[in-house]
Write a structure and sequence with these properties.
Strand content: 5-15%
Helix content: 40-55%
CATH architecture of the largest domain: 3-Layer(aba) Sandwich
Number of domains: 3
Largest sheet: 5 strands, parallel
Radius of gyration: 25 Å
Number of strands: 16
Shape: globular
CATH superfamily of the largest domain: P-loop containing nucleotide triphosphate hydrolases
CATH class of the largest domain: Alpha Beta
Oligomer: single chain
Length: 440
Amino acid sequence: MKPAILVVDDEPSIRSLFSKYLTNAGYFLKEASCLKEAKEAIKSLQFNAVLLDMMLPDGNGIDWIKDLRETSPDVAIIVITGGGDIPVAVEAIRRGADNFLTKPVNLADLDIFLRKSLELQRLRRKDITNQRLKKKTMFYFGGSEGMKKVKELALMASVHNLPVLIQGETGTGKSILARWVHEQSLCSSAAFVELSCSSLKGDMLASELFGHVRGAFTSAIQNKEGLIEVADGGSLFLDEIGDMDLATQAQFLKVIEEKQYRRLGEVKVRSSDFRLICATNKILREETRQNRFRQDLYYRINTFPVSIPPLRERPDDLMGLAHYILTNLGAYNVELSQEVINLLKSYPWPGNVRELRNLVERALFLSGGESIQIEHFRGIESSDSSSPPMSDINDLDQLQGEHIMTIIKRSGGNKRKAAEALGISKSALYRRLKKFQKPL
């Protein structure tokens, strides 16, 4: 697949010159005349390198480097500066750029710089992947009978290369258990590839799974490998598979049975030997009765079912789980008052473990790292109601937003470090910031 290059420059003649030369040299080029266009391009396509001019109509390119590096940590960044702007170029390197060229740019030098930068990008991507593989996923099973069964089945699933279907309500930890199963398996050194079937539909979902060739559909402007291909030798995790549309279900069934597939718009047959793990919060048997899920696909993915019970059905695990969350947050010696313990045990936990984690995290923030008291758990009630009052929900959102901003400040504004400290992905951090309407 051709390396994708984003050229950001406000001079049409320079963009045209770079585009013609680099296209002939075997690159895929996309142009942007300002920072706004460049940011939109980064959101829509994955680039291998960015050629970034400094002086742009809507700002200085140097001010974008830090955010670009955070959102695309492995992309190669080459800045283009004027002949007398060496100090600016040095500052750009300090902020995260990989290299710089001065105008007028020698095109042969540009090609050499790009090749070196793309090799650096490849090594950086490999290092990021290795770091992720080294970081083992922890899953709290607890001691309740229901979770003992889950652990027993999960261990068996990790040994056998059978399709696993993890079922449970939203917030029970299905995706974490899926990764845990992968990391205990024989393919743990290979990729764990995750895709949420609820966020994409139709051609977009099929494209993510199977890949596509240029021109397969309107927005297919270059060849793209699918996640099935990326997962070869590792595990493919399809979250919320119950939301997959029927057309894609039919295509995917064939892949499971034959381990072969075609990219969209391509006649070439490809193969991929991956371990399939699926998760859903729906009752798939009922979905098949309603003709919303293919019965044959259900039987294929339900070879090894594992059901995680909701938190309300395993109260004996509650306090151990709360202390486990505090430990992961670095609060090793923080205690919960007896009033708090009674409150947590009486609450029905409609959001399951995810809700418990959020509330414990907020309570820890409010307590200042000291003993957690009942007033630190505003937003839940000791009642049969599964939903807190709306005013408390809004207050909870506000406090969570403030806590996230505090962690970001402690991380020096580094979103990646903040996400790691919060125990969430960087994309989840951006979603929460957007929800709380906090400035980036």
